[in-house]
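Hi, here's the filled form for the chain we discussed.

Project: internal
Contact: R.S.
Residues: 441
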Amino acid sequence: MSEHKNLLITNVYPVDEQRDGSESVDIRVRDGIIVEMGTGLASEAAGTGASSGDEQLFDGKGAYVSPGWMDMHVHLREPGFEHKETVRTGCEAAAAGGFTAVACMPNTYPPIHTRDVVSYILKQANGLPVDVYPIGTVSKERAGKSIAEMADMKEGGAVAFSDDGDPVQDSRLMRIALEYSAMLGVPVINHEEDLPLSRPGHMHEGRVSTRLGLTGSPSIAEEVMIARDIQLSELTGGHVHVAHISTRKGVQLVREAKMKGLKVTTEVCPHHFDLTDEEIDRRQFHTNWKMHPPLRTVDDVEAMIEGLQDGTIDAICTDHAPHSVDEKDVEFIYAPNGIIGLETAWSIVCKRLINSAKLSLQEVIVKMAVNPRKILNIPVPVLAVGEAANLTLFDTTSDWVCSKENIRSRSVNTPWLDEKLTGRALAIYNKGQFKIWDDLH
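And the returned structure, exactly as it came back:
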């Protein structure tokens, strides 16, 4: 990774909470700080006062620029499962997908259940152009029996707590976690699934599962747990964040909780507003379409988009879940759940939300760059002179193919493999490092 602390980006259109991408600007960065924004900025040659070498010129050619995107739900697999992904390879995939920050889930081995594991993750991420924020476990060993050392982990750098991909099934334990949430000012992110209702479901329970003869996981298994957590949030004053929401009634439950002023937020993944359970039949049980929560119905997909439109759904995340080829290349019922998503997220957002005019560019950027950080109490990057440069450059029109050769993740388990996609991240700038898409692919 080469460093370009001094950079002039020309002919780009800023998009953030205040700007809608309608006005062009040039941005000069020096030593990682935005020092000038305007039009017609001239490139500085060597010897003109640049303090860290020559200034690199990047012509945006009419692309957009926004605060660096953040994915608040990824699985980096390290420690313990480095054959699937590592902190480094996960961050390479994030950079290729336009993300300058990720929050990593604790279902590693050992889990992120003590401060020393939090420190290990942060050490592995040191020097990378993508900020990594560890999420600690709710329970010791992710066993769901006793509360983990939440305060100590927060002091060490954890930004939230979750037992993902297992739900906090014990209601008393969840209550205690939310009481800590209220005291510490951090969210508890729950994988919303009532296990006795859902297991051993291999896909969404409904017409398609019946036709295919597969045991299904019903929507109510997710909704019952969401309803429980909303009530516990109301009782404790703690912040519940509903992970990867996927059902219409689940969205309605969150909508009603927000109307009551409760500390409840949620996120949705691109695959849950793009794909349906019909794909499992259409793709002949290919395991790249097996995930949890499972792909649901057309009506649920429409509900996800409606929730994004009205603000019920706060953030777009990927639930990036790498698995090796030999793990996924088994019969459908034996395959692990999950797909990678960091590198394809923007294209699916363009397809389903922007190019179809469901959401404005500005609304989408708020859900990908601003709200994830607000939920996790992380400072939001600002496009202004004097601020640290934390940027994503992107377009909504470029075509590219998601091939094994293009993927930077260590795994390739994606339903969009070998598909032609539209819209891509062109580059990121963060921590004095400038990474260009064409160099990553």
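Let me know if anything looks off before we file it.
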